[in-house]
Amino acid sequence: GEDVEQSLFLSVREGDSSVINCTYTDSSSTYLYWYKQEPGAGLQLLTYIFSNMDMKQDQRLTVLLNKKDKHLSLRIADTQTGDSAIYFCAESLNNNDMRFGAGTRLTVKP
Amino acid sequence: DSGVTQTPKHLITATGQRVTLRCSPRSGDLSVYWYQQSLDQGLQFLIQYYNGEERAKGNILERFSAQQFPDLHSELNLSSLELGDSALYFCASSVIAGRGDTQYFGPGTRLTVL
What is the number of other CB atoms lying within 10 angstroms of the CB of residue B53? Predict the structure, then answer.
């Protein structure tokens, strides 16, 4: 399809792991991104992965990339209430355009 | 605080009007990006400028235009406004203009068209 797809909602308990999934559109996308948006704020770049990588880890965040299936995931270990936000997956297209998913609203329950 | 500033924070106007949104990038950043975030369209990339020149264009309407000035601040001009233009408009900046270059987002301007 033409859209970057993400599930809209995810709810986890504090201390559990969260996994947010994304399917992107363009197999030639060279960079894939995860952004976090807290209420009333702009987007904060969390991490990105280059297309020649399968995995990238940064503290509590792990990004997995499956190029064959055009599937990207973000795992947040030991999820905290401060992680509650909307998480956007995005791909960088060849023309420097960026395409965003609709965002996954993560709710962390104490 | 990302270091990117946007003014105004809120803007309420009527259909058919024209507005200008302003963005100041982080000190030292040469590239500025504009995005529109609405409930029905999600987050959409509009346009990118690098050191005063247009670098990339996304889903920007012909009624919209932007520019980046010699001091690197940018303005997004929206004209002949329609109800559907109501959205949050974000500006982001980065040091250069390559993919993977971290984009820092401003707090946004909320535009309401009545």
Answer: 10
